[in-house]
Amino acid sequence: MTTQTERTDAINWVLRIMRLGGLWPLSTSREEPPVLAFLKVNYRYALHVPITFTFIGLMWLEAFVSNNLEQAGQVLYMSLTEIALVVKILNIWYRSTAARRIMGHMKHSSDYALQSEQEHSYWQQQQRLFKWYFYLFLLASLGVVYSSCIGVLFLHDYELPFDYFVPFEYRNERRYYYAYGYSLIGMTVTSVSNVCLDALGCYFLFHLSLLYRLLGYRVRGLQYTASEVEFKEKLVIVFKLHNRIRNLTVQIETLVSPYVLSQIVLSAFIICFSGYRLQHVGIRANPGQFVSMLQFLSVMVLEIFLPCYFGNEVTVYAHQLTNDVYNTNWLQCDKRSRQLLIAYMEHLKKPTKIRAGYFFEVGLPIFVKVDIRYAVFTILYS
C-alpha cells in the first residue's frame, strides 16, 4: 500500500525547492545550537529582502522615474506580476504554521489511508500527472526569463532583459554585467518562487479533489457489501470521512484564498494590457519582442487557468457524490439505512465551493469571464 511520503508525492519536490528558496520553514530541533536555529528561522529574510523585494521595489521605482512612457509601461506591467508574488510570499509566511499543519495532516492522517490496490494505483497515477503539469509550467516560466536574458546579449546597445532602476551608469562594458547579473538573478528567484507557490496552492486544491474522488469511490463500493450490518458500518465510515474532508476544505480555502484572489485579479489586468501591446507590436517589425510577449502572455493565462481548473475539480467531484449515493443499492436497504442515505443526500445539497476572498468562486466559469473581458478590452482599444 502507499506510504505517507507517496501520499503527497507530487508536491514533495516542490517543498524541497521551497525550503532552499526560503518559502517553506526549515526543520529545526531543540538540540540545535541557538545560532543555527536563528539562521534557519531568518534565512528567508536574508534571501528575499536583498533579492526579491529589493528587485521588485527597483522595478516600481523605474516605472515612476522613467522619462520614456513606453518603457515605463513595459516596466509597470512586469511590476504588476511581481505584486502578486509579494502577496503569495507574505501569505505563505504568515500562514506557514497552518500550511505545515495541513500538509502534515494530508500526509500522515490515517483517515485518508488508501485501502485497496486500485485506490493506490489511481492515486499514484494522478500524482504523476500533477508533477508533469508543473514541470511544464516551470519550463514555460523559466523560458520567458532566459529567452529575454539571452536575447539582449545579441543587441548592439547595452539593454537589460528586465528594466529596473539602476543607481549607477551601466551602459558601458565595465558595469553592464553587474546590472545584467542582478536582473538575471532577481528574475530567476522570483520566477522559481512564483511557480513553487502556484504549485503549492494548486496542490492543496488538487489533493482535496482527489479526496472527494476517493470518497465517491467508496460510496459506490457500498453496493457490493454482503450484509446490511456491513453496509451500515461502511456508511458511518463514509459519513466521518466526508465530515473530515469538509473541515479540510474550509482550512484549505482560508489558506489559498488570498493567493488565488491576487493572482486572478492582477493577471486579468496583465493579460488585457499584454494583448493590447501585442496588437501594436507587429511580428515583422520586432519578432523577438513579439515572441517574448507571447510567451509571457501564455504563462499569465496558465497562472489563472491552473487554480481555476483545480478549484473546479473540487466542486465537480463534491457534487458528484449525490449521484454516487443514488447509484447505491438503496432500494434493497432497510428503512433505517434509507433514512440515513436520504439525510446524507440532503446534506450534500449544500454545494462545496472554493471562494477567493469571499468575492467569487474559484472555477472554470471565472476563467471564461476573464477571457471574455480580455476580448472586450481588445475590441474596444483596437
N-to-C order of helices and strands: HHHHHHHHHHEEH
The helix content, as a percent range, equals over 70%
* Biggest sheet architecture: 2 strands, antiparallel
Q: Estimate nothing, just give the exact number of structural domains.
A: 1
DSSP strand tally: 2
Structure class? mainly alpha
Flag low-confidence runs: 374-382
Note the beta-strand portion. Answer: under 5%
Mean pLDDT: 80
Shape category:
elongated
Major sheet strand order:
1-2
The tally of helices reads 11
Gyration radius, to the nearest Å? 25 Å
Distance between termini? 58 Å
Write a concise synopsis of the structure shown:
With 382 residues, this protein is mainly α. Helices cover 76% and strands 1% of the residues. The chain has a two-stranded antiparallel sheet with strand order 1-2.
